[in-house]
Amino acid sequence: xxxxxxxxxxxxxxxxxxxxxxxxxxxxxxxxxxxxxxxxxxxxxxxxxxxxxxxxxxxxxxxxxxxxxxxxxxxxxxxxxxxxxxxxxxxxxxxxxxxxxxxxxxxxxxxx
Amino acid sequence: xxxxxxxxxxxxxxxxxxxxxxxxxxxxxxxxxxxxxxxxxxxxxxxxxxxxxxxxxxxxxxxxxxxxxxxxxxxxxxxxxxxxxxxxxxxxxxxxxxxxxxxxxxxxxxxxxxxxx
Lengths: 112, 117
Description:
The structure holds two protein chains of two kinds.
Chain A: E1 9-12, E2 18-23, E3 35-40, E4 47-50, E5 64-69, E6 72-77, E7 86-93, E8 101-103, E9 107-111
Parallel strand pairs in A: 1-9
Antiparallel strand pairs in A: 2-6, 3-4, 3-7, 5-6, 7-8, 7-9
Chain B: E1 3-6, E2 10-12, E3 18-25, E4 33-39, E5 45-51, E6 58-60, E7 68-73, E8 78-83, E9 92-99, E10 105-108, E11 112-116
Parallel strand pairs in B: 2-11
Antiparallel strand pairs in B: 1-3, 3-8, 4-5, 4-9, 5-6, 7-8, 9-10, 9-11
């Protein structure tokens, strides 16, 4: 599989909650608890916001949370803030014969 | 603090090779693996490969058809990514990122712009 599937865009108003889905297969998202999420602002390097499905690195706001059900992982941002406007990518370890790690297609989050 | 500092921008002709470096500091070099990831303009992140600095073992994406070579110099705490037979579509920002035990990329370099023209 070349990429995990994410919605192209998600939007919400300040203070609202949004959820981004990440659909893979039984060979990646469904098979391993090695799902991560990254935030990327324009012209910046990505930043890890969730690892191991639902763990936050030190310094990441508790407004970010992750979950997984079957072959689909999700990132929820609660209390949406203007600085959350960015691109978000999921990723997973994979048992694919052609690659060991795969990113999602990316989701643009817009704060209205 | 953990830092990954990459080499500067490169301009290459089609068919040439490019070698990007990534110098690590602030942690024990041999304990954490390292990912290489690229991002073409306006496109998604694309995983290229991973190297274990302790033994030099690598995992590569076959999407690059054996054009990628990942190495490290433990004496210099530096990783290298070489991409051969460059094509116009290889123009991208190339990132190195430290890999945790769960394969998450927890610290990223600043990126290196490679332009094939």
